[in-house]
Amino acid sequence: AAAPPPPAHRNPPLPAKAHxxxxxxxxxxxxxxxxxxxxxxxxxxxxxxxxxxxxxxxxFFWPGVSEPELVALDRPLVxxxxxxxxxxxxxxxxxxxxxxxxxxxxxAMDDWERFSEGGxxxxxxxxxxxxxxxxxxxxxxxxxxxxxxxxxxxG
Length: 155
What we know:
46% of the residues lie in helices and 6% in strands. It is built from six helices and two strands.
């Protein structure tokens, strides 16, 4: 989700749920299930978004759950949906896990099916940009698409 950039500012903050979740777990310690940290991290992102004149939020948003929270921000929204072949996504997940690059607060591999089936498009007002991440996408190109979508949406 993003708000239109003012003319002098082209780099809105990009708070990420995963990083927020990891920080919470590191500072609060083990105990609650990953979902508790995840929900807290999303609440932090949404709270930051209400205070920022412009912001981009990065998260695994859940269809049927996340839409009301994002619409409540009461600003133009542009959804950027990243996807690749499910086998490739799983292979990336396994590589990070096997390389020790996954924080322990994140869900385990045995929870894969719930995430792979739940990661759909959100039903949001505003433009939708679908990015194929089978190969590393051009950040400049995606940013240009978002800028164009906001210009069209905000007039």
